[in-house]
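User: Can you write out an input/output pair for a complex, sequences first and structure second?

Assistant: Here is one pair. Inputs:
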Amino acid sequence: MTRVQQAERLFREYHATLVRYLTRRLGDRDWAEEIAQETFVRALRQEQIVNERSWLFAVANNLVRDEARRAARQRRHLELMAAEAREAEREPVEPAVERAHEAADARHALDALTERDRQALLLKEEGLDYGEIAAVLEIERTSVGTTLSRARRRLAETYEALQDARRRREQHAAS
Amino acid sequence: MPHPDEGLIHAWLDGELDAAESARIEALVRSDPEWAAAAAEARGLAAASARIIAALDDVGGTSRPGEATAPAGMAPRRRRPWWMMRAAALLVVVAGTAIVLRRTAPDESRGTTPEDVRRSAPAQQEERSTAPARAKGALDEDRRSGAVEPKAAGQRDQAGALAGGVTAGGAAGGGAAAGGTAVSGAAVGRTTSVSAPVAGAPETRAPVASAPETRAPVASAPETRAPVAGTEGRAALAAATEATLKTAAKDEQLSRLVCYEMVGDEPVSGLDKSARANALAAPRTVARADSLAAAAPAARKVLALVEPANRLRSAEADLAERPAAPVPAALSARLPLQALLRKQGPDTILVTWRDGGEAVTARAVARGDTLIGNASAAGRAPRAFLAVRTACPRP
């Protein structure tokens, strides 16, 4: 199989899942597409890829990390939480946007995790096994279980807290 | 009995333990209520996490992973007037670019395949990748109206490369000085991609940029409106234009020049980040056309120089004067506009760029001299904007 054929196969097999992972991680579909495309371009240039799935996700993670202003982006994103919460009190919640509120809470809860926990969780949801997650995150395989347990707990607790707060605001607005 | 090890339990639930270890944990969970409770909790957390993460797919753009359409981006509610100016100005630059591209677009529609990845790889080494583009509908429409003559093969290739994406080497950078007379220089490092709408919905998006085979001569777009800039602003724009032209000419890459002028914009309130809400934004934006036209003008003129090698150079200046010319009562095709914005049809211009490291996404439709659209970015409120074609200042 030529390198081009190899790249085409990788593209077919992993593009969708890689974009989904990146979109979930970044909250930005366009950005995710850019990173994914660059990842496959690099795969095309790569002579040999041993563990292709973990290689692709690791490259994608590195590309994301290379974004110089990522930290600033996250800070601004977190700052928005308060502003959005305030505005949510003023604006009516339509049934059509209820799922969007849930999604916003999910995003905020995910953003509240540490980078490693967040990545581990998203990689697991994309079907990577512990060995692959360990390879991508450059951690010991034996640490993945602990990382995931911590990440899952924090994600669920934060999300629940956000949901509770939203419900309280809605009840307050209704009363 | 050892205390429950959460990490071990999660690894067990995930099927990551070997047979012996798995049997040991299983026995502990069966025999020890503490382990059983921990396992039950871990199951709940794993399920909850999966559900929460799945909820993320409801936001992040108009499309979801696995789909091929370009997104409108997340748009949390927040008012940032400074962003309106910069983002909308840059949007207009790129949207103008897309219009030019549309008028010189390839005659045949073609989806992007992994084969495109292979073919475009050399170009990708220097340029940021962008989305595939199709503009057949617009080209056909123009041809029917006689607005566009058939292009030579080389020109079509060039247009395809342009439609594939534009990297802004000097787009709408720093702020203008007080009084609105200073010209922002070349702000490097900002990447802008222009995606003409995808008509056939390929399954994936892949880099399609390719090096142009021919160089089109410098040509300015039709000047349909008189300049409205004040003297100082016009001089500043002319200086910026000259500088940019020189740089572009040096690279022999300049092809087109298009200018739009912001005449109004305002936040589109009541929206959220979801794809559904982005769809809702389109008709709201169109409905606000009149109020946009009546709003205080942004008074920022933008000129765009489009190059065939995935680069966009531009300059901008804040102008002291309000536009004197009345905003055209255009938008007569309101319903078509609404439909186009909602459907991302062949006339919809999709634009994304980086502003301060953040992705800004916009969709716009041009009709005659009028450009109307939504612009949104993660962390910023969606904006509806209206711009009109204006004369490009010449050095």
